[in-house]
Amino acid sequence: MTPYTLYILKCNDDTLYTGITTDLEKRLLEHNTSDKGAKYTRYRRPVIVVYQEPCSDKSMALKREHAIKKMSRQQKLALI
Q: What is the pTM of this model?
């Protein structure tokens, strides 16, 4: 079982982006330099990781991602 990481990025325009990955370093590089990054972050480069949280499996990571995406910006900032 590959461990997953939930992450929050701070974009150049001060917005926040939440995602999951099995390789955070590679995913951050994709967000900042390639078309493999999310469309949302492609136009808000550079992005930096401001929060990361380990998850034991994909199901847990997806549930946590969904919960964080439902949070208000203020709640996300408090988490960070």
A: 0.95
